[in-house]
Design a protein that fits this description.
Distance between the termini: 29 Å
Largest sheet: none
Shape: globular
Oligomer: single chain
Structural class: mainly alpha
Strand content: under 5%
Radius of gyration: 17 Å
Number of helices: 10
Helix content: 55-70%
Number of strands: 0
């Protein structure tokens, strides 16, 4: 299965399993801030780098742009800052460190200090952990599931994701506008 097909299937599955917060983020038009002087409002710089690397592993650059090209880490920061409840924010930050914990257990280095092969092994461990978490029907959402949802929604709503070959973009009418303030249009658009 190629990346494009996997992403389409993931997007379809994601559509059926969005949490209330994730659905609210999409419906309210959250987007990444493209400014060059941008700084995160929710994540620390180290957490932002970690999220960026994980997002790129979820959607790597191939013949189409990757998560870093779409600035998914900025989308994730904005989405968590604006739309996540305080307990969801706390859980996200606490559970994000599972990547570093597993990396230090296995390789005695932080996740970002690992080579690509080592990072993939850690991702496999985290995915296994997620499957066990979900099989046990624990309350909440595993950090990897959360990151995957946010990465895919950030990518699929970014200009890079829309125009980068993954989705079909037809400017009817006019240019791409990934985020339009609800007050400007007065109603939610339907396709």
């Amino acid at each position: 299965m190629d990346r494009r097909e996997a992403l389409k299937i993931s997007s379809l599955i994601l559509g059926y399993s969005l949490t209330g917060t994730s659905a609210m983020i999409l419906l309210n038009g959250c987007k990444a801030d493209p400014k060059t002087d941008w700084s995160p409002s929710f994540l620390s710089e180290d957490e932002l780098q970690l999220v960026s690397e994980i997002a790129e592993m979820i959607l790597p650059k191939t013949e189409t742009p990757g998560a870093k090209d779409a600035q998914c880490e900025r989308y994730i920061d904005a989405a968590l800052h604006v739309f996540a409840k305080p307990e969801e924010q706390k859980d996200f930050k606490t559970n994000l460190h599972i990547f570093d914990e597993k990396a230090k257990e296995k390789f005695t280095k932080a996740f970002l200090a690992l080579n690509q092969n080592e990072k993939e092994k850690i991702m496999d461990l985290v995915v296994k952990d997620m499957k066990e978490f979900e099989a046990a029907k624990k309350e909440g959402k595993h950090i990897f599931r959360r990151l995957k949802e946010l990465t895919i929604s950030g990518y699929c709503t970014s200009e890079v994701g829309v125009k980068g070959g993954l989705l079909e973009f037809r400017p009817v009418p006019g240019p791409y506008q990934g985020c339009i303030d609800y007050a400007n249009i007065g109603k939610t658009w339907a396709l």
